[in-house]
Amino acid sequence: MPASAPPPTDRRFLGRLSLPERRYVADALRTETVGGVLLLAAAIAAIVWANTPLKDSYASLRDFHIGPAALGLDLSIQHWAADGLLAVFFFVAGIELKRELVAGELRDPKAAALPVIAAICGMAAPALVYALVNAVGNGSMDGWAVPTATDIAFALAVLAVIGTSLPSALRAFLLTLAVVDDLFAILIIAVFFTGDLNFAALGGAFAGLALFWLLLRKNVRGWYIYVPLALTIWGLMYNSGVHATIAGVAMGLMLRCTTREGEEYSPGEHIEHLVRPLSAGLAVPLFALFSAGVTVSGGAIGDVFTQPVTLGVVLGLVVGKAVGIFGGTWLAARFTKAELNPDLSWPDVFAVASLAGIGFTVSLLIGELAFAGDTALTDEVKAAVLIGSLIAAVFASVLLKLRVRTYQAMIVDEERDDDQDGIPDVYEEHTPEYHLRMAEIYERKAAEHRERAELAGASRSEGDRPA
Known about the structure:
The chain is mainly α. 71% of the residues lie in helices and 1% in strands. β1 and β2 (75-76) form a beta hairpin.
Protein backbone atom coordinates (compact mmCIF):
# COMPACT_ATOMS: atom_id res chain seq x y z
CA MET A 1 0.00 0.00 0.00
CA PRO A 2 1.39 3.45 -0.84
CA ALA A 3 2.51 5.51 2.08
CA SER A 4 0.04 8.25 1.24
CA ALA A 5 -2.97 5.93 1.03
CA PRO A 6 -5.64 6.60 3.66
CA PRO A 7 -6.28 3.87 6.21
CA PRO A 8 -9.08 1.40 5.51
CA THR A 9 -10.83 2.16 8.78
CA ASP A 10 -11.89 5.45 10.31
CA ARG A 11 -10.65 5.80 13.89
CA ARG A 12 -12.84 8.80 14.66
CA PHE A 13 -15.65 8.39 17.16
CA LEU A 14 -18.46 6.53 15.37
CA GLY A 15 -16.16 6.22 12.37
CA ARG A 16 -16.09 3.38 9.88
CA LEU A 17 -15.54 -0.11 11.30
CA SER A 18 -13.01 -2.56 9.96
CA LEU A 19 -14.53 -5.01 7.49
CA PRO A 20 -14.29 -8.09 9.80
CA GLU A 21 -15.82 -6.12 12.68
CA ARG A 22 -18.57 -4.80 10.42
CA ARG A 23 -19.45 -8.33 9.31
CA TYR A 24 -19.43 -9.63 12.88
CA VAL A 25 -21.68 -6.79 14.08
CA ALA A 26 -24.07 -7.34 11.16
CA ASP A 27 -24.32 -11.10 11.82
CA ALA A 28 -24.75 -10.64 15.57
CA LEU A 29 -27.40 -7.95 15.28
CA ARG A 30 -29.28 -9.86 12.58
CA THR A 31 -29.83 -12.74 15.00
CA GLU A 32 -30.61 -10.37 17.88
CA THR A 33 -33.19 -8.55 15.73
CA VAL A 34 -35.07 -11.77 14.99
CA GLY A 35 -34.82 -12.72 18.66
CA GLY A 36 -35.99 -9.26 19.64
CA VAL A 37 -39.14 -9.60 17.56
CA LEU A 38 -39.83 -12.96 19.24
CA LEU A 39 -39.13 -11.32 22.61
CA LEU A 40 -41.61 -8.55 21.84
CA ALA A 41 -44.22 -11.10 20.77
CA ALA A 42 -43.64 -13.15 23.94
CA ALA A 43 -44.00 -10.08 26.16
CA ILE A 44 -47.26 -9.08 24.46
CA ALA A 45 -48.55 -12.65 24.73
CA ALA A 46 -47.72 -12.71 28.46
CA ILE A 47 -49.52 -9.43 29.14
CA VAL A 48 -52.59 -10.50 27.15
CA TRP A 49 -52.64 -13.95 28.79
CA ALA A 50 -52.37 -12.45 32.28
CA ASN A 51 -55.21 -9.97 31.65
CA THR A 52 -57.86 -12.26 30.18
CA PRO A 53 -60.22 -14.82 31.73
CA LEU A 54 -57.38 -17.33 31.18
CA LYS A 55 -55.16 -15.56 33.70
CA ASP A 56 -55.56 -18.37 36.25
CA SER A 57 -54.06 -20.85 33.78
CA TYR A 58 -51.13 -18.46 33.25
CA ALA A 59 -50.47 -18.26 36.99
CA SER A 60 -50.83 -22.02 37.40
CA LEU A 61 -48.35 -22.79 34.63
CA ARG A 62 -45.90 -20.11 35.77
CA ASP A 63 -45.94 -21.39 39.36
CA PHE A 64 -45.90 -25.10 38.50
CA HIS A 65 -42.89 -26.82 40.13
CA ILE A 66 -40.75 -29.40 38.41
CA GLY A 67 -37.26 -30.79 38.94
CA PRO A 68 -35.33 -33.12 41.25
CA ALA A 69 -35.88 -31.96 44.82
CA ALA A 70 -32.98 -34.13 46.04
CA LEU A 71 -30.63 -31.91 44.04
CA GLY A 72 -32.22 -28.71 45.31
CA LEU A 73 -33.75 -28.07 41.89
CA ASP A 74 -37.50 -28.38 42.53
CA LEU A 75 -38.23 -25.04 40.86
CA SER A 76 -41.22 -23.27 39.37
CA ILE A 77 -41.41 -22.81 35.60
CA GLN A 78 -40.79 -19.09 36.10
CA HIS A 79 -37.76 -19.90 38.25
CA TRP A 80 -36.38 -22.31 35.62
CA ALA A 81 -36.77 -19.57 32.98
CA ALA A 82 -34.99 -16.96 35.11
CA ASP A 83 -32.17 -19.10 36.48
CA GLY A 84 -31.91 -21.78 33.82
CA LEU A 85 -32.73 -20.34 30.42
CA LEU A 86 -31.11 -16.99 31.17
CA ALA A 87 -27.85 -18.83 31.89
CA VAL A 88 -27.77 -19.49 28.13
CA PHE A 89 -28.28 -15.77 27.50
CA PHE A 90 -25.45 -14.88 29.86
CA PHE A 91 -23.24 -17.59 28.32
CA VAL A 92 -23.55 -15.79 24.98
CA ALA A 93 -22.96 -12.47 26.77
CA GLY A 94 -19.74 -13.91 28.23
CA ILE A 95 -18.52 -14.94 24.76
CA GLU A 96 -19.40 -11.49 23.37
CA LEU A 97 -17.49 -9.81 26.15
CA LYS A 98 -14.45 -12.07 25.67
CA ARG A 99 -14.44 -11.42 21.94
CA GLU A 100 -14.77 -7.66 22.40
CA LEU A 101 -11.84 -7.69 24.82
CA VAL A 102 -9.47 -9.72 22.64
CA ALA A 103 -10.57 -9.05 19.06
CA GLY A 104 -13.25 -6.36 19.03
CA GLU A 105 -13.68 -2.70 19.85
CA LEU A 106 -12.62 -3.12 23.51
CA ARG A 107 -9.16 -4.51 22.72
CA ASP A 108 -7.83 -1.01 22.04
CA PRO A 109 -8.01 1.07 25.25
CA LYS A 110 -8.31 4.32 23.31
CA ALA A 111 -11.15 3.03 21.14
CA ALA A 112 -12.81 1.36 24.14
CA ALA A 113 -12.72 4.45 26.36
CA LEU A 114 -15.79 6.16 24.90
CA PRO A 115 -18.26 3.23 24.88
CA VAL A 116 -17.03 2.01 28.28
CA ILE A 117 -17.41 5.45 29.87
CA ALA A 118 -20.79 5.86 28.15
CA ALA A 119 -21.97 2.48 29.48
CA ILE A 120 -20.78 3.21 33.02
CA CYS A 121 -22.49 6.61 33.03
CA GLY A 122 -25.53 4.96 31.43
CA MET A 123 -25.80 2.67 34.45
CA ALA A 124 -24.82 5.16 37.16
CA ALA A 125 -27.27 7.88 36.10
CA PRO A 126 -30.41 5.67 36.21
CA ALA A 127 -29.36 4.37 39.63
CA LEU A 128 -28.91 7.96 40.84
CA VAL A 129 -32.28 9.01 39.39
CA TYR A 130 -33.95 6.07 41.14
CA ALA A 131 -32.19 6.85 44.42
CA LEU A 132 -33.13 10.53 44.24
CA VAL A 133 -36.81 9.80 43.55
CA ASN A 134 -37.00 7.29 46.40
CA ALA A 135 -35.06 9.51 48.80
CA VAL A 136 -37.55 12.32 48.21
CA GLY A 137 -40.58 10.00 48.27
CA ASN A 138 -39.44 7.78 51.17
CA GLY A 139 -39.43 4.72 48.92
CA SER A 140 -37.34 1.56 48.97
CA MET A 141 -33.73 1.74 47.80
CA ASP A 142 -33.70 -1.99 47.03
CA GLY A 143 -34.58 -1.47 43.37
CA TRP A 144 -31.74 0.91 42.49
CA ALA A 145 -30.27 -1.59 39.99
CA VAL A 146 -33.51 -2.27 38.09
CA PRO A 147 -33.26 0.64 35.57
CA THR A 148 -29.52 0.19 34.94
CA ALA A 149 -29.77 -2.51 32.24
CA THR A 150 -30.22 -2.20 28.46
CA ASP A 151 -31.94 -4.88 26.38
CA ILE A 152 -30.20 -4.92 22.99
CA ALA A 153 -32.62 -7.47 21.50
CA PHE A 154 -35.69 -5.43 22.43
CA ALA A 155 -34.04 -2.24 21.14
CA LEU A 156 -33.34 -3.89 17.79
CA ALA A 157 -36.88 -5.24 17.66
CA VAL A 158 -38.11 -1.66 17.97
CA LEU A 159 -35.90 -0.65 15.04
CA ALA A 160 -37.30 -3.52 13.00
CA VAL A 161 -40.91 -2.64 13.86
CA ILE A 162 -40.59 1.07 13.02
CA GLY A 163 -38.83 0.18 9.77
CA THR A 164 -35.53 1.97 10.25
CA SER A 165 -31.93 0.90 10.53
CA LEU A 166 -28.74 2.42 11.79
CA PRO A 167 -25.36 2.93 10.11
CA SER A 168 -22.83 0.27 11.13
CA ALA A 169 -20.94 2.65 13.43
CA LEU A 170 -24.07 3.44 15.47
CA ARG A 171 -25.05 -0.23 15.56
CA ALA A 172 -21.57 -1.18 16.79
CA PHE A 173 -21.74 1.57 19.44
CA LEU A 174 -25.10 0.22 20.63
CA LEU A 175 -23.79 -3.37 20.69
CA THR A 176 -20.64 -2.38 22.60
CA LEU A 177 -22.76 -0.44 25.08
CA ALA A 178 -24.90 -3.53 25.59
CA VAL A 179 -21.86 -5.79 26.09
CA VAL A 180 -20.36 -3.52 28.75
CA ASP A 181 -23.83 -3.06 30.23
CA ASP A 182 -24.17 -6.85 30.52
CA LEU A 183 -20.78 -7.05 32.24
CA PHE A 184 -21.79 -4.62 34.96
CA ALA A 185 -25.22 -6.21 35.27
CA ILE A 186 -23.45 -9.52 35.88
CA LEU A 187 -21.29 -7.90 38.57
CA ILE A 188 -24.35 -6.33 40.20
CA ILE A 189 -26.14 -9.68 40.30
CA ALA A 190 -23.05 -11.48 41.64
CA VAL A 191 -22.26 -8.90 44.33
CA PHE A 192 -25.65 -7.64 45.50
CA PHE A 193 -27.95 -10.61 44.93
CA THR A 194 -25.94 -13.47 46.37
CA GLY A 195 -27.68 -15.26 49.23
CA ASP A 196 -26.21 -17.33 52.04
CA LEU A 197 -23.26 -19.17 50.58
CA ASN A 198 -23.00 -22.95 50.50
CA PHE A 199 -19.22 -23.26 50.32
CA ALA A 200 -19.29 -26.97 49.44
CA ALA A 201 -21.47 -26.33 46.38
CA LEU A 202 -19.46 -23.21 45.50
CA GLY A 203 -16.22 -25.20 45.72
CA GLY A 204 -17.73 -27.86 43.46
CA ALA A 205 -18.77 -25.20 40.94
CA PHE A 206 -15.23 -23.76 40.91
CA ALA A 207 -13.78 -27.26 40.49
CA GLY A 208 -16.13 -27.82 37.56
CA LEU A 209 -15.10 -24.52 36.00
CA ALA A 210 -11.44 -25.45 36.42
CA LEU A 211 -12.08 -28.76 34.65
CA PHE A 212 -14.00 -26.89 31.91
CA TRP A 213 -11.02 -24.54 31.43
CA LEU A 214 -8.52 -27.43 31.39
CA LEU A 215 -10.48 -29.37 28.76
CA LEU A 216 -10.62 -26.27 26.57
CA ARG A 217 -6.87 -25.71 26.89
CA LYS A 218 -6.22 -29.37 25.96
CA ASN A 219 -8.41 -28.88 22.86
CA VAL A 220 -10.75 -31.66 23.95
CA ARG A 221 -13.81 -31.65 21.71
CA GLY A 222 -17.29 -33.13 21.98
CA TRP A 223 -20.59 -31.59 23.06
CA TYR A 224 -21.34 -34.79 24.99
CA ILE A 225 -18.50 -33.82 27.36
CA TYR A 226 -19.15 -30.10 27.74
CA VAL A 227 -22.96 -30.07 27.96
CA PRO A 228 -23.19 -32.46 30.97
CA LEU A 229 -20.29 -30.64 32.61
CA ALA A 230 -21.97 -27.27 32.03
CA LEU A 231 -25.23 -28.53 33.52
CA THR A 232 -23.35 -29.83 36.57
CA ILE A 233 -21.57 -26.50 37.04
CA TRP A 234 -24.89 -24.66 36.71
CA GLY A 235 -26.57 -26.88 39.29
CA LEU A 236 -23.72 -26.46 41.77
CA MET A 237 -23.65 -22.70 41.23
CA TYR A 238 -27.39 -22.49 41.83
CA ASN A 239 -27.10 -24.41 45.10
CA SER A 240 -24.12 -22.32 46.21
CA GLY A 241 -26.23 -19.20 46.72
CA VAL A 242 -24.56 -17.33 43.85
CA HIS A 243 -27.01 -16.58 41.05
CA ALA A 244 -26.84 -19.48 38.60
CA THR A 245 -26.47 -17.23 35.52
CA ILE A 246 -22.93 -16.41 36.70
CA ALA A 247 -21.96 -19.95 35.68
CA GLY A 248 -22.96 -19.18 32.10
CA VAL A 249 -20.88 -16.01 32.04
CA ALA A 250 -17.83 -17.75 33.50
CA MET A 251 -17.92 -20.52 30.89
CA GLY A 252 -18.41 -18.01 28.07
CA LEU A 253 -15.37 -16.03 29.19
CA MET A 254 -13.20 -19.16 29.11
CA LEU A 255 -13.68 -19.82 25.40
CA ARG A 256 -10.89 -18.82 23.02
CA CYS A 257 -12.03 -15.97 20.79
CA THR A 258 -8.89 -15.46 18.69
CA THR A 259 -8.15 -17.38 15.51
CA ARG A 260 -5.10 -19.51 14.90
CA GLU A 261 -3.45 -20.44 11.63
CA GLY A 262 -5.85 -22.34 9.41
CA GLU A 263 -8.95 -21.25 11.36
CA GLU A 264 -11.63 -19.13 9.73
CA TYR A 265 -13.44 -18.67 13.03
CA SER A 266 -12.30 -18.99 16.62
CA PRO A 267 -13.94 -21.67 18.83
CA GLY A 268 -15.75 -18.94 20.75
CA GLU A 269 -17.23 -17.42 17.58
CA HIS A 270 -18.22 -20.87 16.31
CA ILE A 271 -20.00 -21.80 19.54
CA GLU A 272 -21.61 -18.37 19.78
CA HIS A 273 -22.93 -18.83 16.22
CA LEU A 274 -24.51 -22.13 17.31
CA VAL A 275 -25.87 -21.00 20.68
CA ARG A 276 -27.00 -17.43 19.92
CA PRO A 277 -30.15 -18.55 18.03
CA LEU A 278 -31.06 -20.73 21.03
CA SER A 279 -30.56 -17.77 23.35
CA ALA A 280 -32.29 -15.13 21.24
CA GLY A 281 -34.97 -17.36 19.76
CA LEU A 282 -35.94 -19.55 22.71
CA ALA A 283 -34.35 -18.78 26.09
CA VAL A 284 -35.03 -15.04 26.29
CA PRO A 285 -38.56 -15.14 24.78
CA LEU A 286 -39.57 -17.91 27.20
CA PHE A 287 -38.19 -15.89 30.11
CA ALA A 288 -40.27 -12.93 28.89
CA LEU A 289 -43.36 -15.11 28.56
CA PHE A 290 -43.18 -16.18 32.22
CA SER A 291 -41.94 -12.86 33.65
CA ALA A 292 -43.82 -10.13 31.78
CA GLY A 293 -47.33 -11.33 32.64
CA VAL A 294 -48.46 -8.57 34.98
CA THR A 295 -51.99 -7.32 35.52
CA VAL A 296 -52.53 -4.04 33.70
CA SER A 297 -55.37 -1.67 34.53
CA GLY A 298 -55.95 2.04 34.62
CA GLY A 299 -55.37 2.12 38.35
CA ALA A 300 -52.22 0.01 38.13
CA ILE A 301 -50.77 2.26 35.42
CA GLY A 302 -51.61 5.32 37.50
CA ASP A 303 -49.88 3.79 40.52
CA VAL A 304 -46.67 3.42 38.48
CA PHE A 305 -46.40 7.20 38.28
CA THR A 306 -47.34 7.90 41.88
CA GLN A 307 -45.26 5.41 43.88
CA PRO A 308 -41.58 6.30 44.35
CA VAL A 309 -40.25 2.79 43.57
CA THR A 310 -42.03 2.44 40.25
CA LEU A 311 -41.64 6.11 39.29
CA GLY A 312 -37.91 5.80 39.99
CA VAL A 313 -37.71 2.83 37.62
CA VAL A 314 -39.57 4.66 34.83
CA LEU A 315 -37.55 7.88 35.16
CA GLY A 316 -34.34 5.89 35.50
CA LEU A 317 -34.95 4.15 32.18
CA VAL A 318 -36.32 7.13 30.25
CA VAL A 319 -34.30 10.02 31.68
CA GLY A 320 -31.35 8.41 33.43
CA LYS A 321 -30.26 6.21 30.53
CA ALA A 322 -30.47 8.96 27.90
CA VAL A 323 -28.77 11.62 30.01
CA GLY A 324 -26.15 9.23 31.39
CA ILE A 325 -25.04 7.72 28.06
CA PHE A 326 -25.17 10.99 26.15
CA GLY A 327 -23.51 12.99 28.92
CA GLY A 328 -20.79 10.41 29.48
CA THR A 329 -20.07 10.18 25.76
CA TRP A 330 -19.97 13.93 25.26
CA LEU A 331 -17.69 14.52 28.25
CA ALA A 332 -15.36 11.67 27.26
CA ALA A 333 -15.14 12.95 23.68
CA ARG A 334 -14.47 16.47 24.92
CA PHE A 335 -11.65 15.48 27.26
CA THR A 336 -10.07 12.96 24.88
CA LYS A 337 -10.53 15.34 21.94
CA ALA A 338 -12.17 12.56 19.96
CA GLU A 339 -13.53 13.83 16.64
CA LEU A 340 -17.09 12.81 15.78
CA ASN A 341 -17.75 11.24 12.38
CA PRO A 342 -18.76 14.23 10.19
CA ASP A 343 -21.62 12.22 8.65
CA LEU A 344 -23.25 12.00 12.09
CA SER A 345 -24.12 14.53 14.77
CA TRP A 346 -24.62 14.60 18.52
CA PRO A 347 -28.42 14.30 18.21
CA ASP A 348 -27.73 10.86 16.69
CA VAL A 349 -25.84 9.88 19.85
CA PHE A 350 -28.72 11.15 21.98
CA ALA A 351 -31.20 9.09 19.93
CA VAL A 352 -29.17 5.92 20.49
CA ALA A 353 -28.82 6.82 24.18
CA SER A 354 -32.62 7.10 24.39
CA LEU A 355 -32.99 3.73 22.64
CA ALA A 356 -30.76 2.22 25.33
CA GLY A 357 -33.49 3.13 27.83
CA ILE A 358 -35.28 -0.03 26.73
CA GLY A 359 -34.39 -2.22 29.70
CA PHE A 360 -36.34 -5.43 29.62
CA THR A 361 -34.77 -8.86 30.15
CA VAL A 362 -32.13 -8.06 32.78
CA SER A 363 -34.29 -5.33 34.36
CA LEU A 364 -37.10 -7.84 34.90
CA LEU A 365 -34.61 -10.32 36.34
CA ILE A 366 -33.12 -7.77 38.75
CA GLY A 367 -36.63 -6.66 39.72
CA GLU A 368 -37.48 -10.24 40.69
CA LEU A 369 -34.27 -10.54 42.70
CA ALA A 370 -34.57 -7.14 44.41
CA PHE A 371 -38.12 -7.66 45.68
CA ALA A 372 -38.22 -11.45 45.90
CA GLY A 373 -40.20 -11.42 49.16
CA ASP A 374 -42.94 -9.07 47.93
CA THR A 375 -44.98 -10.46 45.04
CA ALA A 376 -47.21 -7.39 44.71
CA LEU A 377 -44.27 -4.97 44.57
CA THR A 378 -42.43 -7.27 42.15
CA ASP A 379 -45.37 -7.10 39.74
CA GLU A 380 -45.53 -3.32 40.11
CA VAL A 381 -41.83 -3.02 39.33
CA LYS A 382 -42.29 -5.26 36.28
CA ALA A 383 -45.11 -2.99 35.11
CA ALA A 384 -42.79 0.00 35.60
CA VAL A 385 -40.09 -1.69 33.51
CA LEU A 386 -42.60 -2.34 30.72
CA ILE A 387 -43.98 1.20 30.78
CA GLY A 388 -40.54 2.83 31.02
CA SER A 389 -39.25 0.70 28.15
CA LEU A 390 -42.30 1.58 26.06
CA ILE A 391 -41.85 5.32 26.66
CA ALA A 392 -38.14 5.08 25.82
CA ALA A 393 -38.95 3.11 22.66
CA VAL A 394 -41.50 5.66 21.43
CA PHE A 395 -39.25 8.62 22.23
CA ALA A 396 -36.21 7.04 20.54
CA SER A 397 -38.31 6.05 17.51
CA VAL A 398 -39.39 9.64 16.97
CA LEU A 399 -35.79 10.89 17.21
CA LEU A 400 -34.48 8.21 14.85
CA LYS A 401 -37.25 8.78 12.30
CA LEU A 402 -36.23 12.44 12.07
CA ARG A 403 -32.84 11.31 10.76
CA VAL A 404 -33.91 8.24 8.78
CA ARG A 405 -32.99 9.72 5.37
CA THR A 406 -29.47 10.47 6.58
CA TYR A 407 -29.11 6.91 7.89
CA GLN A 408 -30.46 5.42 4.66
CA ALA A 409 -27.96 7.41 2.58
CA MET A 410 -25.10 6.28 4.83
CA ILE A 411 -26.18 2.64 4.62
CA VAL A 412 -26.38 2.77 0.82
CA ASP A 413 -22.88 4.24 0.71
CA GLU A 414 -21.59 1.59 3.15
CA GLU A 415 -23.03 -1.28 1.10
CA ARG A 416 -22.20 -0.01 -2.41
CA ASP A 417 -20.23 -2.62 -4.35
CA ASP A 418 -19.80 -1.30 -7.89
CA ASP A 419 -17.02 -3.73 -8.77
CA GLN A 420 -19.18 -6.63 -7.55
CA ASP A 421 -16.40 -8.46 -5.70
CA GLY A 422 -18.40 -8.98 -2.50
CA ILE A 423 -16.54 -6.27 -0.56
CA PRO A 424 -18.11 -2.82 -0.08
CA ASP A 425 -16.27 -0.22 -2.17
CA VAL A 426 -15.66 2.02 0.84
CA TYR A 427 -13.11 -0.56 2.06
CA GLU A 428 -11.26 -0.68 -1.27
CA GLU A 429 -11.18 2.88 -2.55
CA HIS A 430 -7.67 3.33 -1.13
CA THR A 431 -6.27 0.46 -3.23
CA PRO A 432 -5.07 0.72 -6.86
CA GLU A 433 -6.56 -2.71 -7.66
CA TYR A 434 -10.06 -1.40 -7.01
CA HIS A 435 -9.61 1.52 -9.39
CA LEU A 436 -8.15 -0.76 -12.08
CA ARG A 437 -11.18 -3.04 -11.79
CA MET A 438 -13.50 -0.06 -12.03
CA ALA A 439 -11.59 1.20 -15.09
CA GLU A 440 -12.15 -2.17 -16.81
CA ILE A 441 -15.85 -2.06 -15.93
CA TYR A 442 -16.25 1.46 -17.33
CA GLU A 443 -14.28 0.57 -20.45
CA ARG A 444 -16.60 -2.39 -21.12
CA LYS A 445 -19.61 -0.16 -20.55
CA ALA A 446 -18.17 2.49 -22.89
CA ALA A 447 -17.57 -0.12 -25.60
CA GLU A 448 -21.11 -1.42 -25.15
CA HIS A 449 -22.59 2.08 -25.49
CA ARG A 450 -20.47 2.84 -28.57
CA GLU A 451 -21.80 -0.36 -30.15
CA ARG A 452 -25.36 0.60 -29.27
CA ALA A 453 -24.78 4.07 -30.69
CA GLU A 454 -23.61 2.58 -33.98
CA LEU A 455 -26.63 0.28 -34.13
CA ALA A 456 -28.97 3.13 -33.31
CA GLY A 457 -27.35 5.28 -36.00
CA ALA A 458 -27.66 2.51 -38.59
CA SER A 459 -31.33 1.95 -37.75
CA ARG A 460 -32.06 5.65 -38.06
CA SER A 461 -30.30 5.82 -41.44
CA GLU A 462 -32.40 2.93 -42.76
CA GLY A 463 -35.53 4.64 -41.49
CA ASP A 464 -34.63 7.89 -43.28
CA ARG A 465 -34.37 6.21 -46.73
CA PRO A 466 -37.26 7.07 -49.13
CA ALA A 467 -39.76 4.25 -49.71
